[in-house]
Write a structure and sequence with these properties.
about 550 residues; alpha/beta; TIM Barrel; Double Stranded RNA Binding Domain; three-stranded antiparallel beta sheet; 18 helices
């Protein structure tokens, strides 16, 4: 818990630049603007928008933010030092940086002598001149500078004297932040701590040796920041180690997106630093938006959220074992290191063959079902659960099916419709890439028999279409239901074509999503079970919502 006296940390998000270098991740200008505004709401002080001039998309992004600025965050342009043997004033890419109109600019320069000679193919002295000239020029144009010391830790370990000279050049030119970058992601936390301390001590000594001037006095030491990559699965740990050693800025990305193995994950760093280490990063109200922000960004970049991500993942506060659930019900501290609501997440009780009665009772409450542990129905539900899971059902991923199972055991499962049979016919035409399917269903609603048929580009699509077509006149709300995901798993592949198949179907109505399950040696029958229960549960949700409206009016 942070207080007014908690030490301040400055967060720097680079999702829109370093994060977009992740393989398979691509965003439009509109995507970048939406993410920037969401990070602004989250309270991130510095948001790196990209490299103006590197591509037309980034140029337009900065132009649009000039027309519609962020509320509180500083948008930052990113660029390298000038090229060797030129001048900053004549460097075209720096003109693009100035045109971006940002108050802050992040400039990265080479810290490792290997990169200077092998990559830049220039001298060590010219690299120092490039750092000085670039920063001095941008400062003369009214910009404030964050200096990213690229490959800092590798450079320091190979040639500490020269690496420190690059920082001294940045300081002398007017950089306000010195960000130490573990660009290759291969450094360990104990090395990070020691090197950050070494740098702080060295810079303090260097500044202290400078003579005081009459008009300016002794210069202050620029603040140190940290930028870590996750190639050794150490990005978050390394960033925290740097903070403990004195770093005041932490750079990272939402969900840890980034090149190769990614960057330090701000969704883990922020709560660890704020809730565990006592630093002030964002407000407590903003912290409660963290889970939503994580999922928002994953949705915009079209990458599936990591359900097992710490703090913000769907399973971060999920409890499956019966003993765990029983303990958490009595005191959440027994198996939860923080309150999930602090980061905008929530506790979930998972149902599976490992469940005890506590799981069933807790899950029943989450569905608004009041179960008494002393009644026979509760034990019957638990036994039915274990029996079905032994046959291949999986209710931890299909909670809607489990809710229907509970209603069935309690004798209050609503019969919206009854399927009396179905047929599916597929045409495979040689030379065509797709096949046509025709499904016919026979069902009854309120004693009235309906026979309906529909086509689809596959048997499950055709079956789903036929069921909807038959039911929509009785239940118009079905028109709002969507089948959003369909997953198939073979449970016992060694039996060949006689293998048992599990089908998971995710459905939604624009506001809620729910998952149902079917299991059979016939993939169409398993699909039928899951699709039918998906429609049934959607109707149940609608019925419950209508009942609540009537009760409140």
């Amino acid at each position: 818990m942070t207080t007014n006296s908690s030490p301040q940390l400055w967060l720097y998000d680079t999702t829109l630049r370093d994060g977009t270098q992740r393989e398979g991740l691509s965003v439009s200008i509109e995507d970048k603007l939406r993410i920037a505004k969401r990070l602004d709401q989250l309270g991130i002080p510095f948001i790196e928008g990209g490299w103006p001039g590197a591509n037309p998309k980034d140029v337009q992004f900065f132009w649009q933010l000039q027309e519609d600025p962020l509320k509180q965050a500083e948008i930052v342009a990113f660029c390298s030092t000038r090229r060797p043997n030129t001048t900053a004033a004549t460097e075209p890419m720096l003109q693009d940086i100035l045109a971006a109109g940002t108050r802050w600019v992040t400039i990265f320069g080479k810290s490792w002598d290997l990169h200077v000679t092998a990559s830049l193919k220039t001298t060590l002295e010219e690299n120092l001149a490039m750092i000085r000239d670039t920063i001095e020029y941008l400062r003369s144009q009214g910009r404030r500078i964050i200096y990213d010391a690229e490959h800092w830790f590798d450079g320091y370990k190979h040639n500490p004297d020269y690496a420190l000279q690059t920082l001294e050049a940045a300081i002398a030119s007017g950089a306000e932040w010195l960000v130490l970058c573990d660009t290759n992601g291969g450094t360990l936390p104990h090395e990070i701590s020691q090197i950050v301390q070494d740098v702080s001590s060295h810079l303090s000594f260097v500044i202290s040796q400078e003579p005081m001037t009459k008009d300016k006095g002794q210069r202050t030491i620029p603040q140190i920041g940290i930028h870590t990559h996750n190639d050794s699965e150490m990005a978050v740990a390394n960033a925290i180690a740097a903070v403990m050693a004195g770093a005041k800025m932490v750079q990272g990305t939402i969900n840890g997106y980034g090149e190769r193995c990614g960057n330090a994950n701000l969704c883990s760093l922020i709560p660890n630093l704020q809730l565990k280490a006592g630093y002030s990063c964002i407000t407590e109200d903003q912290l409660t938006q963290l889970t939503e922000a994580s999922r928002f960004v994953s949705e915009v970049v079209n990458l599936a959220p990591d359900e097992h991500a710490p703090f913000v993942g769907l399973s971060a506060f999920a409890h499956k074992g019966g003993i765990h659930v029983s303990a958490v019900e009595r005191n959440p501290l027994t198996y939860e290191h923080i309150q999930p609501e602090q980061v905008g997440n929530h506790r979930r009780i998972v149902i599976s063959e490992q469940s005890g009665l506590s799981n069933v009772l807790a899950k029943a409450r989450s569905f608004g079902i009041d179960l008494d542990h002393q009644k026979a129905e509760a034990k019957q539900i638990l036994q039915r659960l274990k029996d079905l899971e032994s046959e291949g059902f999986q209710f931890e991923a299909a909670e809607a099916s489990f809710a229907l199972l509970m209603h069935e055991a309690l004798g209050d499962r609503q019969k919206f419709f009854e399927v009396k049979g179905f047929q599916v016919h597929c045409d495979l035409i040689e030379g065509k890439e797709t096949s046509n399917a025709l499904a016919t269903v026979k069902l009854a609603v309120d004693g009235k028999n309906i026979l309906e048929a529909a086509e689809g580009n596959g048997p499950v699509a055709a079956l789903d279409a036929a069921l909807r077509k038959a039911l929509v006149n009785f239940y118009p709300q079905i028109a709002t239901f969507d089948l959003t995901d369909y997953k198939v798993r073979i449970l016992n592949g060694h039996t060949g074509t006689a293998a048992k198949t599990r089908v998971l179907v995710e459905s939604g109505n624009g506001r809620q999503r729910w998952t149902t399950v079917g299991v059979s040696t016939n993939i169409l029958e398993a699909s039928y079970q899951a699709v039918v229960e998906g429609l049934e549960y959607g109707l149940l949700l609608h019925s419950q919502a209508e009942a609540m409206v009537k009760a409140s009016s």
